[in-house]
């Protein structure tokens, strides 16, 4: 570490903290966006987190029926049709 310029110490620390926090977030259950308090997280980061969270859970979701019961709903599989115009 002595051969690394002191200018890189901050960048290395930032990257290391992002990687470690990402690994820990994947190992434990992430906090649902609804549980985040308003104004605690930067709005841009909150918007990105909501996109990531719902994209991650996109394969299955729970919907409540009118009578209050829940059922699992899955997305339709992607079609393999070729939508390009004939050449």
How would you characterize this protein structure?
- This protein is an alpha+beta fold and 87 residues long.
- It has two domains: 1-30; 33-75, no CATH class.
- 38% of the residues lie in helices and 11% in strands.
- Strands 1-2 form a two-stranded antiparallel ribbon.
- The longest helix has 19 residues, at 9-27.
Features:
single chain; 87 residues; alpha+beta; two-stranded antiparallel ribbon; 2 helices; extended; membrane
Identify low-pLDDT runs: none
Q: Supply the number of structural domains.
A: 2
Compute the CA-based radius of gyration. 21 Å
**Can you list the strand order of the major beta sheet?**
1-2
Summarize the amount of helix as a percent range. 25-40%
Content of β-strand:
5-15%
> What is the total tally of β strands?
2
Q: What is the mean pLDDT?
A: 75
Shape descriptor:
extended
Query: Alpha-carbon distance between the termini?
Result: 59 Å
Number of helices: 2
Structural class: alpha+beta
H/E topology pattern: HHEE
- Tell me the major beta sheet: 2 strands, antiparallel
Structure in a nutshell:
The protein has 87 residues and is α+β, with helices and mostly antiparallel strands.
Please write out the topology.
Blueprint: H1 9-27, H2 43-56, E1 60-64, E2 70-74
Antiparallel strand pairs: 1-2
């Amino acid at each position: 570490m002595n051969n690394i310029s002191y200018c890189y110490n901050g960048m290395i620390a930032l990257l290391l903290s992002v990687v470690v926090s990402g690994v820990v977030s994947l190992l434990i259950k992430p906090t649902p966006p609804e549980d985040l308090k308003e104004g605690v997280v930067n709005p841009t980061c909150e918007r990105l987190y909501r996109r990531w969270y719902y994209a991650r859970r996109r394969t299955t979701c729970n919907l409540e029926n009118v009578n209050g019961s829940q059922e699992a709903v899955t997305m339709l599989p992607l079609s393999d049709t070729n939508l390009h115009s004939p050449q």
